[in-house]
What we know:
17% strand
Amino acid sequence: MVLDGFGGFGNGGRRIGRSSAPSLPPPGRESTAWILARINECNLELGLDSDRNIRRLVALCGTLMGAVQVGYERLRDGGLQPTVRWTEATGAEAVHSTAVPGLEPRLSLEPGAAVPGAGAVNGLKVEPTDGGTRVTVGVRYGGVRWGVLRVALDRVFVLGDIDRRILEFVAAAIGIEEQREGSEVARRQTEERSRLVFETIRDGLGIVDPFENVVFANQAYADILGFTREEIVSKNLRELLVPGELDKVLAQTEQRREGKATVYELAMRRKDGEVRQIRVSAVPWRDPNGAFVGTIGAIVDITEEKKAEAERLDHTARLRRAIEKTIQAITTMAELRDPYTAGHQRRVAQLAAAIARETGLDDEAVQGIYLASVIHDIGKVAVPSEILSKPGRLEPVEFQLIQTHCTTGYNILKEIEFPWPIAQVVAQHHERLDGSGYPAGLKGAQILREARIVAVADVVEAMASHRPYRPALGVGVALEEIRKGSGRLYDPEAVEACTRLFEQGGFEFD
Ligand SMILES: [Fe+2]
């Protein structure tokens, strides 16, 4: 505060010889010494409490100006909110409400009535009022408008140089308090919020400097690694890593140095030596100038999660293998009874899987088609073996009996919850696109894609191989048959893929 700057005080409009307490003006009130003494008194009284300081400054203003009232209104949300009021009789008090009762209208200190425009908020305005003078000063500091100081005098007042300096000083001092209060509150709130987040969050939160030293850790961070907070803060990450993990950490640090957030998994060793799988989500930590000064990382122990995941995958794989072996066992049993179709299902499965792959289906779908094909004629167990192995043409009733194998197969399998529609494929493998197939006479898209593929493989394998009632016709004749029926009986995409497999892919039955 530049007190030396006051000088050359003139009389201004100040009246002399006021008698009311508490600012009983001593003789020589107008003197520089008296004013400096009041300011120094006020300065000595200022403490850490900004609100109290502002009340004190408003009172100082009233005393120095010989005012009857002084009001400080804080600028909030674009409006002025009465905050502190000082009167000769009562001194300064906090108002903190939107209405200021008791301020004399003639002095125009009531809010709303004399809300100054931007110009007044910025500067200083002296206006005559009914029986007195009103002075309005903008409170600005640090490039921010904080509010307005209004001084009411019960006399005609001419603004002198000293009055201007007093008003500017008080306004600036209030601005400083406002800024300090604002930053203090904001800083305290931020600190408190950060502390709460750091302490209550269940994830481990830590800060690591660019040399991998742990410089901060919350309780969860320490707990995950089995140390106390004091112990963990003196550690370097290198001491906590399983050999081989350091390169990964350094590569991730490099990414963060470039400003990227990273998420990765690490094997870390606890204090007791136990290795745990840790998932790290980390963001770069920068100083106010933007320089990389470390990493803020959240860590979660995912060891159990990983174990459970591995067990689940292992369990699923074992279940899959069990399903496959069961299907193979059923097939083998059926084939023992019906040697003529022995190998038919296996070869159909081989071809159907190749067609499925050729048409772009994924491994999962291919597997389903393979397994459905391996078992597609299972329903033939219900057909007398004399009919199945009968050489020569079948009687219509015998043919009808053979046709039941689709539905029988479906009934055998329908209760089993395969991860694929195996029972439906078995039911539909003799359906044809134009509805001429059996048993349901389904058409086009009513037939599962898987079943349409098995149908093509089934026809090709059957024609290419030896049958009890005829010798093998060969692959060429088989391909000719499906080409002729493409789009009418057989799925064109499957026909095309099958043809390609034999003619370009060099496909052969085992
Ligand atoms: Fe069949």
